[in-house]
Amino acid sequence: MMEDIYKTIAIPSKEILYKDRKSKFFGRSFPISAEEDVKLIIEKLRKKYQTAGHICYAWQLGVSEISYRANDDGEPNNSAGMPIYGQIKAFELTNVLVAVPRVFGGTKLGVGGLIQAYKATAQLTLEESTIIEKFISVEFEIKFEYKNLDKVMRLIKQLDLIIKQQKMELSCSIIIIARKSLEGKIFKIFQELHEISFKKLES
Fold it and tell me: Which residues form the Impact N-terminal domain (predicted)?
């Protein structure tokens, strides 16, 4: 597998229900792009699952630099957040949040029971999630005179690049998206062209 590919989920999952001794565990997964997304999603879940005594969750962000968090939300230490996070790692996912609201059923499950229930709910949730592969991308800006348009467009097609934005006038400008692993090759090809300015855009 190329180093610029990662797995994540395409859309929020449907609700999964897992029951253990009348306790109900509702599994949900969400694609996220920043830590700020987590707070908003958890707030919405608290409104939706008002009878839930705990909303435990785990998330992971990043590809080369990973950040993650596991939250037990009042359950015994490491009995909820880490079992959920373990499933995120088992499915090799990133940029994802898995949350499990729990409605208490009157019987205590013990730490072992909780670990098993949260792990099983997270696993079922991710099995039902739409898992996709994405690649880490870089953006470049190409500037050139209109007379060079055919040459530039031919290269964009050959290299299978995505056009994000374009301005076609006497003086043209195109912003392209490319896979990070192809960055060096693309840079070399465009740098060798005369009358064409080519630069990487900082994200």
Answer: 21-125
